[in-house]
Amino acid sequence: MSYQDRQTERDAQFMNAVQGGLTSAIDRGSGRTREYGRVFTALLFALFIITLLMAIMAGTRVYSALSDMRDQTDQSRLAMGLLVNSVRADDAIDAISVGAGPEGRSLVLTERLNSGTYETRIYLYQGQVVEEYSVAGTPYTPEKATPVVPTDTFDFSYADGLLTIITDEGRADVALRSVRGGA
After folding, report:
1. pTM (two decimals)
2. For residues 11-17, average pLDDT
């Protein structure tokens, strides 16, 4: 074999060795790349799960707060609705008047029946608006009254066919059907 052939063969072997080393290094590097890829995927998945859990917790808190607000609003509407419905149920000419309750003015709704005259008295007693149904002219008995709404404020006014009831829960206006209300 000539010198040139041997040199070509050595160059070929050298190139094969270099290429083999590079291939080996690439293979080892691609193994690391795969490993890094798996770690990155796992970290990305964990980040996604954590973000999702945080979003669920935030949504739960917001929903809970909105639910509490809705319950409070519903409760205040219910209480004011009970007062308004009591007034509307007894709305008749000269059926609405002002009385003297144990802690201030009372709204008196008079009902005239064949069996006698009865009063529904709405007034403030020990931090609650209460409703008492009794025979007209009898003394107030707040211990027998039905609590309607907890409040420190109870006031009402009458003008031009409109009865306005005010409590801590808000204000309710009742348009009376009777032309001559009385409060």
Report:
1. 0.57
2. 74
